[in-house]
Amino acid sequence: MSGSEVVIVGGGVTGLSAGWWLARSGVKVTVLDKFIVGWEASGRNGGGASHYSSPLFDEEQRMWPQMDELLGYPTEHQKGRILIAMTERQWEQYRFIAERHTRLNHPVELLDVKQVQEAVPLAGDNCFGGVHYKFGGHANPQRTVQAYAWALQDLGGKIIQHSPVTGFETAGGKVTAVKTANATYGCDAVVVAAGPQIPQLMAQLGVDVPLAAARAEMIITEPAPMMPLGGVDGHKIYGRQTLRGNLAYGGGPHEWLDVDATGPAARPSTPLARNLAKRLAELLPKAAHLNVIRSWAGVIENSPDGRPIIDRLTSPDNVVVASMSSVGFGLSPASGHAIRDLVIDGKCSFADIDILKLSRFDGLEKDWREKRGWMPIA
Amino acid sequence: MELNFNGTDLCAVNGTRSAPEARYDLVVVGAGPSGIAAAIDGAAAGQSVLLVDENPVSGWLMGNDTPLYFGGRMTSATQNSDRMLEAIFMSMPDLESAMEAGVELLLGTTAWGVYRNGPGVNSLPDQVVGLADRDRSWMVGFKKIVIATGARDLAIAFPGWNQPGVMGAAALTMLLTRYDAFAGRRLLILGSHDLALETALLALDKGLEVAGLVEVRDAPQGSAALVEKLAAAGVAIHCGQSIKATKGGLDGVEGATLTDGTDFVCDTICVAIGLVPSIELVDAMHGARTLNAQRGGYIPAGEPNVITVGDCAGLADTGFDHVAYRMDWVRAALKTNAPDTIICQCEEVTLADLIGVQPPQYLDRPPAIQARSLDTLLQDGPANPDQIKRLTRSGMGVCQGRRCRDQVAMLLAIESDKPFGTIPLATHRAPVRPLPLKILAEWDEPAAMDAAWDVWFGIPTQWVPVEDIGTPQEDAHREMLYTGMYK
Ligand SMILES: Cc1cc2nc3c(=O)[nH]c(=O)nc-3n(C[C@H](O)[C@H](O)[C@H](O)COP(=O)(O)OP(=O)(O)OC[C@H]3O[C@@H](n4cnc5c(N)ncnc54)[C@H](O)[C@@H]3O)c2cc1C
Hints:
heterodimer, A: alpha/beta, six-stranded mixed sheet, 28% helix, globular, B: alpha/beta, seven-stranded mixed sheet, 21% strand, binds flavin-adenine dinucleotide
């Protein structure tokens, strides 16, 4: 495929990583984004990179420690994670998770209250214990987005911002061009990685992709003294300490939305910031005096089973669709690799990703959203 | 895994939020003259009215130039909140009238966010404003809200601006007229439009020394009458000048040198170049706003139930182009500021790093990133302050961008050779004042919130390890980690 043109719709981490992987293989890539790279979920997430439930997990774990060097730009990737249980029930749950990690040969260690306090200076003696994952980790989403974008450009790829894709041209069972309001981009293959806008775009190709969009929120504090390990969460919130020291945390109930083809009209945060603040103050009591200085929200899509859809279509047969189903930041080094493989070789070279095929939803009930209660509030 | 869906997502936000603690026909934010007047009007019309004002704010906030640019020049009197409360009542007799008219008044109470249903959110039981005092935060419902948050100081960087003694005109005015708590003696004032002239006259009136005024343009900008008054008081306006250097010691500013070499001894440099309407709350609630150069910058566009009054709605239009004037100051500063001049004080972002779009100092700067700059970024699209913020951290600190957001936007306009109006306004986000976790926390949240709380979406199939799919482990996983969902 070397020398051919691949157009990627969507400059989030998925599209950018795919573009970077393709450019590394000598493919000419053009990434089109409706606004600025990473403006949607990819620049608004928790930065977590520990997706042990995914067939892409091993590749995620293999790639992250190398990313800064391979990209040539910092991602702020940090290894490891500690989950702290703040209730008896959470302690039971986290030990259950630890047990299955042990069974799957993912290195974990149980921490008692004293060990938690040693490892996490901002924690208190109000916890039940913790689990130290010696794998996984977190990175800075915004820096990672730009690192992919710049690395892709360094390899000759193009990024065209402020250019919403409006449709496709097809001929002979293939997409031959991707259209925006002002231009048409001829292509040999297309990757659709447009997040919540995937269903509308794919509908234009006659392909039904079942996805529902929702809003999720985060808060961030002023800097705290640096902890030995920044990936501290638990108590049903997720987050990280940035390398500057800020505590950035999310979790809790989401709101299902309808998102039209032009993308989310707004990404408002809500008083959920208060419920996040409560849990963070409980999780890290020695940080309870720290000031919250911002909150924000992002919009993400989910497939009916919550797992990504990464698939090359049979018709048109030069289209790869990639929705990460709300768990796509951490997996991005691996999802990009898988997409590259599908575009070039038609098959993922490093993992069995059949479980991510779109066809698993063949015959899905029309009212799958209603059944799950994944409907916007009327 | 068999999932039995029953039409309800138990982890969705639907129905989990608390109702507001109280409801009013009218909430007024900001107890300045226009806020008080709006509150009294509402009460006179028989409405239930709550009037809140964040002042007196804590010494910690003042130390972080919030809400105004105090520059560390407040006396220890500002540590005594009772005395400050008293001072507020003494200086604003209308507050008593408002209370007599039936307005409920809460001082020392910050409005940190306004929320309502609209694009992207439909789960709020009510339109609400988040309030906080020293002890807690709570939500209050309203039919109508009047935002009368005034205007804040515009800050601009010059050599040595990041030391105590560099402050804004609004902060100085507040310290002088309200609290009698200004710690300086001798001021150099930047600007010569009415704001600067009035600030100088006020300082003289309060018995302070004014070393001079500095004007970047070739002639004084304010009204002739005020210029004359100042001349009569023997204070010179140094035109065609800006600050080349400052002298500082342990207590901050000790003197300044202008571009023409004139030296001044002073303990305070008061930036009186302009005021910016305080539209944080309006912008953070996605309220519409427009750029109006004659009225001080971005101002709310206005809505039926979200009304802005006073300086928050825009400075009085005298025909003066505030934006062009500020841009002249920033252009001049670009000539004198060394590359290592700090632009964002909280995050210590230098001018060179801002324009170079470089990451913070604690990160490595491999060769590839050193080759990147605003120029290379501009090839991908127009400058956006939020993107610059993500990359450089400018505006990401504790002062929430109060000291740098305006100058960063101006620098981006100048460096990208585009009109100021093409640079988007950097997003304001709730809480629009720093609020401690323990204060912001909803400690008495409804049980429904905790019941719906999951770390992520609560989709049982999302986190089952692939290896476990189709094994008994899959059901064990669901039993252990998902309480009730889809059962
Ligand atoms: C609050 C929050 C916390 C999260 N925490 C984590 C976490 O800790 N770990 C983790 O792994 N994941 C997390 N996620 C999920 C993660 O952010 C997303 O799964 C991931 O960013 C998806 O990346 P993407 O590139 O597939 O999609 P997106 O980031 O949505 O990117 C899609 C891009 O496509 C563009 N686009 C859309 N339509 C068009 C069009 N018609 N033409 C051109 N461009 C178009 C958009 O502008 C956008 O830039 C979180 C998400 C949120 C919101």
